[in-house]
Specification:
Layout (H helix, E strand, L loop, with lengths): L15 H29 L5 H98 L4 H17 L4 H13 L7 H16 L20 E3 L7 E6 L4 E7 L4 E7 L3 E6 L4 E2 L2 E3 L4 E7 L4 E2 L3 E2 L4 E6 L4 E2 L3 E2 L4 E2 L3 E2 L4 E2 L3 E2 L4 E2 L3 E2 L4 E2 L3 E2 L4 E2 L3 E2 L4 E2 L3 E2 L4 E2 L3 E2 L4 E2 L8 E4 L11 E4 L4 E5 L2
Helix pairs in contact: 1-2, 2-3, 3-5, 4-5
Length: about 450
């Protein structure tokens, strides 16, 4: 329980009888003093001076009565002053409490008003957001409806409507790219030139926003083009994150020249021609089961991630000056045309086991920093390792060389393992020093490890 301040105590009114008692006490005191002084004057004074002494006694008694009354009056005046001051303090306390109460009321009113304003603003923002979302949904629905129209011109309009919607609304870009990729995954009508133009436009809309050269760039887009049918896809200079072309059919020339590759790029598709010149990035490149009927060109490319091309069928390939920073696998792959790897750098190891080369293979001045495996590999024509560098170990176990082989000027830190590899007798070969060669029959030479 809180204590009560003096100003909070209730003032008590002085009763009238207390003042009467004070007056009576003063009168009685004066009478007693007067009686005592008169008695003393009568006893001690001579008859001729008694009258003067009695007058002095009376004067003294009245003075005592007057003094007592004055003291009583002074006491009453002091009490009145104390009451007046206390009343003043009480008024000040009440005024302060009233002001504090008014301040609290004002603060409460302002808080209520601010809360109401915030609530109104929140409602207005929610209403604006709902309106914007409804409008966005309507625009998106309308654009998708246009994309599904039977008229090719209307479908083109739908593509551009989706593109503008994505440009103005970044949050919708992944959805729009997914819709465009889904459209490209749909089987196209046969021999419909107008639909082909629509699909090429869809390709251009997607790739135009993957180039980081202006305000039109849409970063972080992922392409799902599994099973799509694409023609002359040009993603040169694009930034690709997690693109999947598994099972796609890419006619014409597919260009990724100078592209920046991240995440995982799956190219397990069928290509007429694939251009990867000067690509960069740390993406994992997957060419497993890919089929390239024309050429695959990756001159000057820099692959920061793993590269795999297992069970692929490739035509002519060119990897001049390419850099492979992690492991490269071409196991069980068929190279139908010439394969050029001059001045390439394999920094993370190379595996070409059970691989078949149908034509010229060029590894001149190529750098093999780690293990290089060519076991059970078929070389149908000439093979050149002229000026190549092998700081790591190379293995050609069970390989077959149907054409001339040259290791002229090659630098090998370790003698390559051949393990019963075979080379044709109809061509001239230049083997590394220390290679053991034994004629097997009229057609073959047997290479064995010492």
């Amino acid at each position: 329980m809180r204590g009560t301040s003096p100003s909070d105590e209730r003032l008590r009114v002085m009763p009238w009888w207390l003042i009467l008692i004070g007056l009576l006490v003063a009168a009685l005191l004066g009478w007693w003093v007067l009686d005592w002084l008169l008695g003393e004057a009568d006893r001690a004074a001579a008859p001729d001076t008694r009258a003067g002494l009695r007058i002095d006694a009376i004067r003294t008694g009245l003075t005592v009565v007057a003094g007592t009354g004055g003291g009583l009056a002074l006491l009453l005046a002091a009490r009145r002053q104390w009451i007046s001051e206390r009343a003043q303090r009480h008024q000040e306390t009440v005024a302060a409490r009233d002001q504090e109460h008014r301040d609290r009321v004002q603060a409460h009113v302002e808080a209520v008003a601010e809360a109401g304003q915030r609530h109104q603003e929140s409602q207005a923002e929610a209403a604006a957001y709902d309106a914007a979302e409804r409008r966005l949904t309507e625009l998106y629905t309308r654009a998708v409806e246009l994309l599904g129209n039977d008229n090719a011109a209307v479908r083109l309009g739908g593509l551009h409507a989706l593109e503008r919607l994505g440009q103005d609304n970044p949050a919708q870009r992944p959805t729009i790219v997914a819709v465009l990729c889904a459209y490209l995954r749909m089987p196209p009508p046969d021999d419909d030139a107008r639909e082909s133009e629509v699909r090429r436009t869809a390709q251009r809309v997607v790739t135009a926003h993957l180039r980081a050269d202006g305000d039109a760039f849409w970063p972080g887009m992922r392409l799902d083009l599994t099973g799509a049918r694409l023609h002359d896809l040009d993603a040169s200079g694009c930034t690709l994150d997690d693109a999947d072309l598994t099972g796609a059919t890419c006619t014409g020339v597919t260009r990724l020249r100078g592209a920046r590759l991240g995440g995982r790029l799956v190219l397990a598709a069928t290509f007429d021609e694939l251009v990867l010149d000067a690509v960069t990035g740390d993406a994992e490149i997957v060419l497993d089961d890919a089929r390239v009927t024309g050429g695959l060109y990756a001159d000057g490319a820099e692959f920061g991630g793993r590269v795999t091309a297992r069970h692929a069928t490739l035509g002519e390939t060119s990897w001049r000056g390419a850099t492979f920073r992690r492991s490269v696998t071409f196991d069980h792959t068929t190279f139908g045309g010439s394969a050029f790897f001059p001045q390439a750098s394999f920094l993370g190891g190379l595996s070409m086991e059970h691989t078949a080369f149908g034509s010229h293979v060029d590894f001149r001045s190529t750098h093999f920093a780690d293990l290089a495996l060519f076991r059970w590999t078929e070389f149908a024509a000439d093979l050149w390792f002229t000026g190549a560098h092998f700081p790591g170990t190379a293995s050609f176990g069970r390989a077959r060389f149907h054409g001339p082989v040259s290791f002229e000027s090659a630098t090998l830190a370790h003698r390559p393992r051949v393990d019963r590899a075979r080379a044709t007798t109809s061509a001239t070969h230049v083997w590394p020093d220390g290679t053991t060669i034994t004629p097997l029959d009229d057609d073959w030479l047997l290479l064995t490890d010492p």
